[in-house]
Amino acid sequence: MASSLLFLFAFLIATVRHASCDPDVPWSQNYVLMYGQDHTQLLNQEKEIQISLDQASGAGFKSLKAYGSGFFGMRMKLPNKDTTGIITTFYLRSYTNNHDELDFEFLGGKGQNYLLQTNVFTNGQGGREQRISLWFDPTEDFHDYQLIWNQHQVVWFVDGTPIRVFKNNQNIGVGYPIQAMQIEASIWNGTWAGEPNWSQAPFQAHYQGFGIDGCPAQLNTIGSECSSPTFEWNMEKYWKLDPQQQMTYEDVRNKHMMYDYCTIGPKAPPECQSNQ
Q1: 105 belongs to the catalytic site
Q2: Could you identify which of 51, 68, 169, 177 might form a hypothetical disulfide with 217, taking C-beta atoms 3.0 to 4.6 angstroms apart as the criterion?
């Protein structure tokens, strides 16, 4: 039973979700368009948004507020058809000269052949890409994509399964995201990801789940309250994966990792060992 562990522990995400967050609030309660108004459609009383890409334009939206910690997520259904060169995203980023960023980037292909690329930018420095293959067709239905960000670690989840960990290793000189970040989502094309087949356009991505479980950053400044254990995601049990989560995380790495910046070059960066 291939990848059975991935499904066995999918319920673990419920232990991370903060009970006060209603995921099904209207989109406009927490988000606003960045660009592509004529490539956007609100559906189901604003409980869903469709953004699309063609040769004229893509589309993107962002949260009204910036946050200093939290548990952030979206339900997404990705474009079908031949999506070579099409990139669908959900990410957090700051707006400074040397920004921080935490990425979900879905790299399209033919049929269901998507790769999920995650990346970390700290103080303007990225280059920490990892790519995994997905164990399901992300175009057939909605799936949950979430990340938890506190002062100890960032963890990316797919349907409750941890797929990446980035620990706070500032004590050994490794950058860590410490800037207030907004939540963003977009669809665009990148030549580095392949040449799009525009005859397949428009490419349409669907998003749901617009409740936000985060600590708002006042005036884009992260206050001490964003590290407080009064927020559930800052409690000690979320400083590292529990044993069952660690097992499923290792299962993903063993079966689905397609690219890891830690394995490129003669010597792995110093943070890599602690993030396995």
Answers
A1: yes
A2: 68
Catalytic residue, chosen from 48, 101, 232, 271, is 101
195 is an active site residue = no
pLDDT of residue 52: 98
Which pLDDT score, from 0 to 100, does residue 10 have? Answer: 43
Q: Considering 105, 184, 232, 271, which one is annotated as catalytic?
A: 105
Q: How far apart are CA 110 and CA 192, in angstroms?
A: 16
Q: pLDDT for 170-187, tens place per residue?
A: 999 999 999 999 999 999
Three-state SS for the chain is CCCHHHHHCHHHHHHCCCCCCCCCCCHHHHEEEEECHHHEEEECCCCEEEEEECCCCCEEEEEEEEEEEEEEEEEEECCCCECCCEEEEEEEECCCCCCCEEEEEEECCECCCCEEEEEEEECCECCCCEEEECCCCCCCCCEEEEEEECCCEEEEEECCEEEEEEECCHHHCCCCCCCCEEEEEEEEECHHHCCCCHHHCCEEEEEECCCCEEEECECCECCHHHHCCCCHHHCHHHCCCCHHHHHHHHHHHHHHEEEEHHHCCCCCCCCCHHHC
Q: Rounded to 5 degrees, what angle do the CA atoms 106, 270, 170 make?
A: 90
Cβ burial of 84 (10 Å; 0-12, 13-18, 19+) is middle
